[in-house]
Amino acid sequence: MIAVALWSVAVLLALAPAGIVLSRHPRGSIILYGGCLIATSALCITALSDLFDVPHLTQSATLPVGLPWLGAHFRLDALSAFFLVVVNLGGVAASLFALGYSRHEDSPGRVLPFYPAYLAAMNVVVLANDAFSFLVAWEFMSLTSWAMVVSHHREAENVRAGYVYLLMASFGTLTLLLAFGLLASGAGYDFDAIRASHPSAALTGMVVILVLLGAGSKAGLVPLHAWLPLAHPAAPSHVSGLMSGVMTKVAVYGFVRIVFDLLPEPVWWWSMVVLLVGGPTATLGVLYALMQRDIKRVLAYSTIENIGIIFTGLGLALAFKAEGLDWVAALAFTAAMLHVFNHALFKSLLFFGAGAVLGATGERDMEKLGGLIHRMPTTAVAVLVGCIAISALPPFNGFVSEWLTFQAILLSPQLSSWGLKLIIPAVGGLLALAAAFAAACFVKLYGISFLGRPRSDVAASAHETDRFSLTAMLMLAALCLLAGILPGLFIDALAPVSKNMVGNVMPHQVGLQWLTIVPIAESRSSYNGLLVFLFVALCGTAAASAIHRFASDRLRRTAAWDCGYPDPNPTIQYSASSFSQPIRRVFGSVVFAAREIGEMPPPSSPLPARFQVELRDLIWDGLYAPIAIVIGFATDRINILQFLSIRRYLTLVFVALIVLLLVVAV
Amino acid sequence: MSSLQFDIAHLLAGSLVLASFMMLYQDRLYALLNVYALHAGVLALSVAWQAYVQQAPHLYVTALIALVFKAIIIPVALHRIIRRLGIHREIENVIGVGLTMMAGIGLVALSMVVMLRVTPDADALAREDLAFALSVVLLGLLIMVTRRNAVSQVVGFMSLENGLVLAATGAKGMPLVVEISVAFSVLIAFIVIGIFLFRIRERFDSVDVQALDRFRGERR
């Protein structure tokens, strides 16, 4: 089936130049997104059928492109098949959403050619089986997404986002290039050869650090996350959904492929590094998210949080695998992979929701929204599902994967290393904090944007979005629910992946009574999404009907109680920043050096009272700004080289040649 | 290969290096051009000898190209350019002849050491040829670096290219297409540089490249 996959990728690549022509045509974007929809559906179905056909799963193919003596190697195994499903499910949803959303695009020529190429690049990264194809596709993925980030280039903010993104992407590719260079030193660039080689311990250690930097910068691990909240919101919403929901997962794929598959058995300190990065990433990401007012920015920061959760799961898997407890490693690894899948679903859904709101109102600032639940009822339902799922509340899918991660954390006393024994509960604490913050963050996002009264005229005059977008969002919402109430199905589908990567699988789930899932043994813990769902649904319906029956049997419309405020101005409502104020006061003064400046004029003065909050990004100030200063200083010095005379350039060439010859001679 | 054939090839390649040295200390443009013509003539002889030794008739074509273009057409053309620019009386202040010659000797020694070290398995003739060719290339670069006048820089570049041709013919099996394309690329480079010379001259009344530096507001 790898042939089908490669042909579909070829179709996507062929659609890219067609996009240039189609962008001039009034219905061109419909044709293009329709083509992408078909190609990604084919890829998704192929990968799904492969994932369930375990004996014939692993297939390879070599194409005579790329480096002349190497060719391009492709391989489809359980891990690739799973990530193909994630990538293309996101691709299907985004293409479907874009069928409707693309009406809002004022310069389609800046998006259409890059969109299919971007999808193709992500697929090739997942399919590649040699370092050269992998890196080329990786860089291609960065470049095409960069082009879409700067598609609305008239806003200075977007151009800056594109610049920072390009820098960080180059940095990430550089570290991956170095990592592959180290790995290839004994084997060559083919992944099969790298798998068969036996690199030394020092070399593998360096590779792990480099890959963590390279894949982590693309995925958004703190402190390499700086580009992500700038770049993801700047792109058109369906692309934002793909970047946040899918591209970060491709980065996770890169990490898993290299660290779990290409490298030999893990060493305990690898997991220490991954855990120490993953846990703080989760908490800091969501703390940042809580401080934002821009919907898409909140979502981008929340992606950082979820990447932290995924990397924590991977770190746990590494720790348990290094100690030989591969049955727990399978649990942690499956939890991470399940969260990869879940996050792709609900983050795409939420970005599409943000896109629908943006299309209907032209606003991304929560403080200008409100009351959208009456104007966009279907969108509101879909976004509500996404918010519940991402806050890890049962019966939706986010709960399952986070719960499984915590189950693995609770097994940490079985480890023998004292360092890990101490660190893992601390990381668990950070994760629990992150989960609570995430709930607060999405209560704020939903409550301020969709509930209450409209805070601006555009919000008051919003209309429900088009049918394609609604279908895409409802499809994702349904999948979130399905993965939440039937998680056993998804866990079993992940068994071949975990078998390949950590050498063991979780217990078989389908067929247990009442569709329960049992991570280790029934005596320890179990979860039943279906029962929770039925219970929630029954109680909710019963409570609602009881209230309607006994408390408000008649619909009455009266003037709302005004809390003692006679002013009907909607700005007196609870605002986004007032909602996050308590958390900002507790944590913000340390993490963001937050300062509140209140100016109260004397009683007789007619001046208005002012209240201002100042937040600083300490990671930016402490890490990125000094680097920028140093580089600026160095380039100023080197800049002299740009204005030499011809003879001096010749002399430089000459001297360089002589020095190199001397090196050869001596 | 008889010892006599080897010795003659050696002699011709050595003469090419010697001609490069002669170019190093010429401070008059006409003299420099004459030595360059000699340089190209020796190259043509050397290539023709290689053609005879290797029994590769296509190398005769290369020799002919070297003779016609490099030993006759280009020097004559440069002569005309110099006359038209009116700089035939100019004396170039080459920085310290002694120093330049010492540097040249050092470069030849360096190229011998490098080439003899990295090609222990190669054919003896090819080894010597490559070593001499590298010396000629390095000396050509040295000429370009030490001269101020744009015409002498062009001549340095041409002699550098002669070194490349020497290397190419020393290695057996170089296809003719490659040599012809190299020869033509040099010709085109020559034409382009010639045009530029006149443009520079038109604007600055001099082909001393220092004028360019002054124009750009450069401090010396």
Topology:
The complex is a heterodimer of chains A (666) and B (220).
Chain A: H1 2-22, H2 28-51, E1 59-63, E2 72-76, H3 78-101, H4 114-127, H5 131-149, H6 156-184, H7 191-196, H8 201-219, H9 228-234, H10 237-262, H11 268-291, H12 295-322, H13 326-361, H14 372-375, H15 377-390, H16 397-410, H17 418-450, H18 457-460, H19 467-485, H20 487-493, H21 495-502, H22 529-551, H23 576-579, H24 581-591, E3 595-599, E4 610-614, H25 618-638, H26 646-665
Antiparallel strand pairs in A: 1-2, 3-4
Helix pairs in contact in A: 1-2, 1-4, 2-3, 3-4, 3-10, 3-13, 3-19, 4-5, 4-10, 5-6, 6-8, 6-9, 8-10, 9-10, 9-12, 10-12, 10-13, 11-12, 11-17, 11-24, 12-13, 12-16, 12-17, 13-15, 13-16, 13-19, 13-21, 15-17, 15-19, 16-19
Chain B: H1 3-24, H2 29-54, H3 58-85, H4 97-118, H5 124-146, H6 150-170, H7 176-204, H8 210-215
Helix pairs in contact in B: 1-2, 1-5, 1-6, 2-3, 2-6, 3-6, 3-7, 4-5, 5-6, 6-7
What attributes characterize this protein structure?
heterodimer, A: 666 residues, mainly alpha, two-stranded antiparallel ribbon, two-stranded antiparallel sheet, 69% helix, B: 220 residues
